[in-house]
Automatic annotation (TrEMBL):
The chain crosses the membrane at residues 38-56, 68-88. The keyword Transmembrane helix applies. Pfam families: YqiJ_N, YqiJ_OB. Residues 109-170 form the Inner membrane protein YqiJ OB-fold domain. This is Membrane protein implicated in regulation of membrane protease activity. InterPro entries: YqiJ_N (IPR048376), YqiJ_OB (IPR010840). Keywords: Hydrolase, Membrane, Protease, Transmembrane, Transmembrane helix. GO terms for molecular function: peptidase activity.
Length: 181
């Protein structure tokens, strides 16, 4: 049900801010406004509710000789469980891996330097090259020399100048016009 609601209302901004200056909202206080998936947060809340409810009823049996009324026990367990879940969610957030993805177009590799990994790049015979993008991610592409007479051997660096379909065309770094001033 939560997943279905998330699909329908995923774009809504549902922050229940308690402080007018925006310092801490209700969802942040409950531990939900952070980088923790809602299903993990909900599981943690239910576990905290269950543990506090069982502990509360055991204490009531030991102290007054019988369990509390269900509505009273549920209300107290929900309040204490929510407080305990705040601590649990903050602890879980520290150990949860954070995911950050980046997507670039293949045309964003143009103008970057790559290193030939396997083979010798000749016109009509591409070689495999490794290029690192602006986010530090390695891309493995097939390259051919831009000029018909060039050959780029394994381990040599080259500048990517254009792309036609899946093949990138490169100029070897030995070209003096490509050296920085």
């Amino acid at each position: 049900m939560i997943e279905a609601i998330g699909l329908g209302f995923g774009s809504l901004d549902l922050h229940g801010d308690l402080a007018p200056d925006g310092s801490a909202g209700l969802l942040d206080w409950l531990g939900l406004g952070r980088d923790i998936p809602i299903l993990i947060w909900l599981t943690s809340l239910l576990a905290c509710f269950t543990l506090t409810g069982v502990a509360l009823q055991n204490i009531a049996v030991a102290m007054i000789g019988g369990p509390l009324a269900w509505w009273l026990a549920c209300g107290i367990a929900l309040l204490l469980g929510a407080l305990l879940n705040t601590l649990a969610a903050n602890g879980l957030m520290r150990i949860m891996p954070s995911f950050e993805t980046t997507v670039i177009s293949t045309d964003d590799l143009l103008g970057r330097r790559g290193v030939i990994l396997e083979g010798t790049a000749r016109r009509g015979a591409p070689a495999r090259a490794k290029v690192v993008d602006q986010y530090g991610q390695a891309h493995f592409i097939m390259v051919e020399p831009h000029n018909d007479r060039d050959e780029i051997i394994s381990g040599q660096s080259a500048l990517i100048v254009r792309r036609e379909g899946p093949i990138f065309f490169v100029l070897p770094d030995e070209n003096t016009q490509l050296k920085p001033i």
